[in-house]
Amino acid sequence: MLTRSRKLFIYPIKSLGPVEVTTAEVTNEGLRFDRQYILVKQPVDPSAGIVQHVTIKNNWSLGLFRTSIDKSWSQLTITHIQADDNAVISIPLTPSPLSLFRAATFRVSIFGTQAPGIDMGERIASYFSRHLNFPARLLYIGGNGQREIPGAVFKAPTESVSFSVNDKLLPQRIRFADASPLLITSTASEEDARRRLPPAARGGDVILRFRSNIHVDVGDEQGPYEEDGWGMLAIRSQLNSDLEVSVRCLFKAVRCLSLNADLVNGGMCATPEQLYGLLMRDRRVNEKLPHKPVFGQYACAGPSGAVLRVGDEVVVTSRVHKSPTPLLTPAPNG
């Protein structure tokens, strides 16, 4: 069955708005630049160990920040859409190692696996602290630029798990994403979610609330939530059909209260517009986490260095009858 990629999103700062792009590079940690920054609360004691990261799941005002990348792919600009002044700040999309050499480093834990985060300095911290109304710091992923996949999300008995796209490619890791390198969604499911909303609330870009990386246009060929049964996908370049990216679907993505974020006003949506509750009615279909609604598929892709483009062909090459399950191999310690 032939479909096409309709939208590609990267989220340079976890929990802030996405940058919609026309091309994206695949890495072993997801799309290039995705979730490489994270906001954390200013630690009272810098030597205390793990810092608390800030997430839109319970900090709705994060929805008021918009992100954009300049044409040279060197600067990331953040804009607070309701600020009267000091609304915009620009930071390096890729900080130079020299600029980070003497910066403070903190440990960040997300679902039980950790990564170091390098502090981006007082100017940036002041910007976010002012608009969030509490002391905050922006961190860039340190160490080797990756973190182990948290096994807790996949109900594994260990702290982390390891899986690959196939037996020819390297194991996958993540940066500051919650649980997997990628999230894949479909247009049919988007439209079903839209129809659940009150008519007056259907005009917005609903898919932004689901924080997708690869949004697939399935046209009329597939119905809502058929991606629940996707196993493997092949994404074929429109420039050269011999160039192919393999995508392995891992787990029907269980969703959290971030679905209820009002991205226009920076609060929680009114009850009739809360997608979390609307999906709870009939979308609790992940057998391992049956108390949460499902929308989309956690996934990984390879080979690293391949480029995805909006409009590339997407072919479902295998399907599963039950929820896709990652290769629950404990990741090596260290």
TrEMBL record:
It holds the Pfam family MOSC. Residues 147-317 form the MOSC domain. GO terms for molecular function: catalytic activity; molybdenum ion binding; pyridoxal phosphate binding. InterPro entries: MoCF_Sase_C, MOCOS_middle. This is MOSC domain-containing protein.
